[in-house]
């Protein structure tokens, strides 16, 4: 399928890579881009061959936010009735295979929120994260006031949401917003290495792990622990569990068939 605002490619037959591609607007996110992003992710989620996905941008910008030019003219009535801007963002939440954000340059506003919707973030050393919406007279609208405090705690999240200041990659790693920081030149190698590693594992176990970790953010601890236990027990019904444990016991590599 041909896209206008993203470029897609498959690496090693197993990893889908999406590059946000609105360079003149620093990859500002508009309805078309979010629709295309959702369509590409959904297609790979349903593709047996794909085990993991990566979303990345350019060296200068992962995404500098929602498209301010497109938003500027909305009235409350337009935005509320049409559920504008936010309506097509939820697709990403429904993706069941892992999605890694490989972030270089600016990840601001909706760009920071998009990165946080991914399962984890690998950042280049030039990455900058921020929720500058407050400077535009609005607040984050795609999870920034919810996912950011869960990721980094109240004080840092309040600091970022109330001042709009950007943090650099080192601070983002220190506070737990990103999982790894590498030199810009290593960014895609690092993300692809992680993605290929994940794609080589049992897909069922990987999806169960993602689903269970996400539960930690959406319910109480006791609900989450019960959910995790049920999934853990259920995995003993898979062939991949037999294969993985037999391979360990017999000191041989495991060959997962995702059954
Ligand atoms: N929207 C539209 N265009 C943008 C955006 C944006 N968010 N960011 C940058 N651009 C455009 C600029 O207008 C400029 O275009 P032109 O060349 O035609 O003038 C081009 O990209 C390059 O930008 P700059 O010249 O400003 O580049 P600098 O290197 O000087 O600065 C910055 C880079 C610091 C990133 C600066 O562009 C900036 O501050 N951008 C805006 C950042 C921002 O405020 N982001 C938050 C937007 S609001 C938001 O995301 C709300 C999310 C709500 C939820 C979304 C719904 C789910």
Automatic annotation (TrEMBL):
Its EC number is 4.2.1.17. The keyword Cell membrane does not apply. Keywords: Fatty acid metabolism, Lipid metabolism, Lyase. SUPFAM superfamilies: ClpP/crotonase. InterPro entries: ClpP/crotonase-like_dom_sf (IPR029045), Enoyl-CoA_hyd/isom_CS (IPR018376), Enoyl-CoA_hydra/iso (IPR001753), Enoyl-CoA_hydra_C (IPR014748). One of its GO terms (biological process) is fatty acid beta-oxidation. Could possibly oxidize fatty acids using specific components. Belongs to the enoyl-CoA hydratase/isomerase family. This is enoyl-CoA hydratase. It comes from Verminephrobacter eiseniae (strain EF01-2).
């Amino acid at each position: 399928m041909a896209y206008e605002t993203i470029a897609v490619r498959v690496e090693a037959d197993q990893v889908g890579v999406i590059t946000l591609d609105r360079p003149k607007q620093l990859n500002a996110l508009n309805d078309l881009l979010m629709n295309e992003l959702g369509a590409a992710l959904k297609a790979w989620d349903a593709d047996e061959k794909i085990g993991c996905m990566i979303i990345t941008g350019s060296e200068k910008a992962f995404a500098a936010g929602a498209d301010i030019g497109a938003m500027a003219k909305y009235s409350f009535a337009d935005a509320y009735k049409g559920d504008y801007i936010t309506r097509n963002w939820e697709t990403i939440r429904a993706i069941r295979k892992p999605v890694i954000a490989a972030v270089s340059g600016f990840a601001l506003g909706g760009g920071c929120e998009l990165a946080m919707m991914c399962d984890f973030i690998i950042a280049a050393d030039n990455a900058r994260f921020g929720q500058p919406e407050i400077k535009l007279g609005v607040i984050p609208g795609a999870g920034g006031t919810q996912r950011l405090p869960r990721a980094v705690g109240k004080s840092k999240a309040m600091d970022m949401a109330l001042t709009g200041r950007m943090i650099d990659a080192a601070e983002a790693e220190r506070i737990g917003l990103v999982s790894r920081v590498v030199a810009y030149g290593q960014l895609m190698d690092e993300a692809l290495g992680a993605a290929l590693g994940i794609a080589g594992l049992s897909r069922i176990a990987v999806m169960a792990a993602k689903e269970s970790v996400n539960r930690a953010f959406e319910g109480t601890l006791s609900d989450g622990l019960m959910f995790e236990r049920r999934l853990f027990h259920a995995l003993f019904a898979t062939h991949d569990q037999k294969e993985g444990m037999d391979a360990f016991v017999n000191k041989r590599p495991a060959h997962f068939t995702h059954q």
